[in-house]
Amino acid sequence: MIRKAVILGAMVALFGVSSLAAQEATGKRGQHAGRMEKAGQMKAGGGGGPLQMMPRLQGYAPATLLGRAEELGLSAGQVTEIEEIQTHLSTVRTETEALHKEHKMAMKAALAEEEPDAEAVGNHLQAAHAAKGMLHWTEVDSSLKAMAVLSAEQKGLVEK
Q1: Which residue, 113, 54, 64, is CA-closest to 85?
Q2: pLDDT at position 32
Q3: How far apart are CA 148 and CA 82, in angstroms?
Q4: What predicted TM-score, i.e. pTM, was given to this entire model?
Q5: Using an 8 Å Cβ cutoff, are 11 and 116 in contact?
Q6: What's 45's DSSP letter?
Q7: Cβ neighbours of residue 12 under 8 Å, at least 6 residues apart?
Q8: Nearest to 145 by CA among 49, 78, 72, 74
Q9: 108-158 pLDDT tens trace
């Protein structure tokens, strides 16, 4: 049973099947899912990154702030700090996306075996999720760091 769940989870992650479709396929769809669908809160494929789940932080994404530098009245020092945060985020994004892809490919290869090894599939699935988790945390952390660079007046402009 655990092996079946691991392989199903790997297929969901690997082939981009929405969690809703996977739940329906296994007959384990949660009772609250229908209510959430009706409320328009579920997206096919599981939605977006953490900044979409935390709307307040979207306005503080380093790229967003840099795009509004003149409007926000950012000083040269603030622009430099936010650019450094953005550079770090870009580096982490490149690294974690490569790691995620590597583990997805390894998971796909493990699933292609005549007798897929659930442990290998599970390890690659967990590693792929860990890479995405690292990216998501870095996105949140970058927005929080960029927010800390701004004055109270500038934060007020961002949150309008």
Answers
A1: 64
A2: 36
A3: 10
A4: 0.66
A5: no
A6: G
A7: 18, 19, 22
A8: 78
A9: 999 999 999 999 999 999 999 999 999 999 999 999 999 999 999 999 999
